[in-house]
Structure formats: C-alpha cells, structure tokens
Design brief:
By secondary structure, the chain is α/β, with parallel strands linked by helices. The chain has a single domain, classed as TIM Barrel. It has eight helices and nine strands. An eight-stranded mixed barrel has the order 1-2-4-5-6-7-8-9. Helix 3 packs across helix 4. It comes from Mangrovihabitans endophyticus. One of its GO terms (molecular function) is lysozyme activity. This is Lyzozyme M1 (1,4-beta-N-acetylmuramidase), GH25 family. Belongs to the glycosyl hydrolase 25 family.
Length: about 260
C-alpha cells in the first residue's frame, strides 16, 4: 500500500489549508526548514504549519536543503530550527540533495549524515534526490550504505489530484538506480499537484508502507539532540528568496528545466 504525503515551502505554498490536507487523506506534511549553513531559516509559518498538522492528526516532518558548505554547521543549523517545534523526535527528517550552484560532494554528504546521527542518536533520515542530479554529482557513491532511506523524485506529466496522477507511475520508478538503493521508501511523483486549496502548484509524494511504518520513521523514541559545542543559535532570520526551493521543487524544477528533467517523457 502507499500513503499520500505533501512536501511544501511556506512561501511557495502560502495559504495552504493544512486541515484540508488531513481531510483529503494526506498522512504527512514535510516542510522546508533550512538551507545551507545560514542561507534560509524558515519563518514562523513553519512552526504554525507543524502545530496545525499535528492537531489535525498528520505525521509531520522537515527537510534541509544541503549544499557544499560546512556539513557540521548545516546539521547544527537544521537542528536549531527544529528545536522551535520540539526537536526531531516525533518528526520525519530529510536531507535534500539537488543543489546545482554549490553541489554537495561525497565527503559533505557523508559528514552531514555522520553528524546527524551523532547529534540525534541515529534518528531516521531520508535522503532526497533524483537521478538527474545524483548521477552527475555523486555517481558511484553508495549513500544507502550509510543507513538513510531513499526518497526519489521522478515526475509524471500533467497536473491534478495526487491519487489520479499516481496512476501514471510505473513500478520501475520505485527503483531509483542510484545511490545503492534497491528501492525507495518515498517517491515524489509530481510538483503540480492539487490539494489543500493549492491548485497545480504542490509536490505530492507516495510512501511505500503502512501508517505504523511511517510513524516509526519519526523516531519518536529517539533521544533529544546532543547540543553542539558552545555555539550560539542563529537569530530568526527574515525569509529571503532561496537559490532553490528544495523538495517542494518549484524553483528547483525551473532550474532543472535547463538541465535534464527528472521526468522527461
């Protein structure tokens, strides 16, 4: 079975009706939290969306857009933002690897995951990417061996409701063909979904598993993050337009159009 998941950006999906997502049958909401070591700090809408989704009974999550800045600082930055909603315990967490202007290297990815595991006592972590990005930048790197779960992006054509669009997804798309993943746990199959009052402007994902399995990946029983060594938390920075959006894919996909579309059909 598959469950429906929305991933979103507080600016590009501004005004999204979180409660409506739950009524429409979406099991989880994953929101962009941070980017780089200081490039993007989600505004207070992030906190509001997480609270509302929890109240509506949804599984919640957050993702960090990874670039090639200091990976230790990036993990600390991400966790600092998550601390405002209670930390990563009880949340899905993902690292988004698709930056084209300052792409992460193997060493950056490896150190990020190691630091994450140290700070969170091994809280489950999704690794989001697509063959269009991974093969030119990290080809041959077995990131799956580091214990992360695969979250693949591969888009169908058209726009509309997720359950309708998903009917176009071939079974082979669950086998990403990169990173050492035999099968992805999550598949982002459109950035033109309609849900929660947003029309044809939303990323929709399918999770391969049950609700219990999805909740298990929130690491609800994980220990609280270990504090970094005597570094101040960043100020709540005003939101600025990021160089790319992240898992939600709107600006990221416009950049991809100049390269290789992940869903060329």
């Amino acid at each position: 079975m598959v469950l429906w998941v929305v991933d979103a950006h507080t600016t590009y999906q501004q005004g999204m009706n979180i409660e409506s997502l739950a009524r429409e049958g979406y099991s989880a909401l994953v929101v962009k939290a941070t980017q780089g070591r200081s490039g993007y700090w989600a505004p207070t809408t992030f906190d509001s969306w997480i609270r509302r989704a929890r109240t509506a009974g949804m599984v919640t999550g957050a993702y960090h857009w990874l670039n090639n800045d200091d990976p230790v600082a990036q993990v600390d930055y991400f966790l600092s933002r998550l601390s405002t909603v209670g930390g990563p315990a009880g949340m899905l967490a993902a690292v988004d690897c698709e930056d084209t202007s300052n792409p992460a290297t193997q060493d950056t990815v490896r150190t990020f995951i190691s630091r994450w595991n140290t700070r969170t006592s091994g809280h489950p972590l999704f690794f989001y990417s697509g063959a269009w990005w991974y093969q030119p930048h990290l080809d041959g790197f077995n990131v799956a061996s580091l214990g992360v779960r695969g979250w693949n992006s591969h888009y169908v054509s058209g726009s509309g409701y997720g359950s309708v669009l998903y009917q176009k997804v071939p079974a082979s798309w669950w086998n990403p063909g990169y990173g050492g993943f035999a099968r992805s746990k999550m598949l982002q199959f459109t950035d033109q979904g309609t849900a929660g009052g947003i029309t044809a402007h939303l990323d929709i994902d399918a999770f391969d598993g049950t609700l219990a399995e999805l909740r298990a990946l929130t690491g609800a029983a994980s220990a609280a993050p270990t504090p970094p060594p005597t570094e101040p938390e960043p100020d709540d920075l005003p939101e600025s337009t990021p160089q790319a959006v992240g898992i939600d894919g709107r600006m990221g996909m416009s950049q991809r159009a100049n390269q290789e579309s992940p869903a060329a059909e």
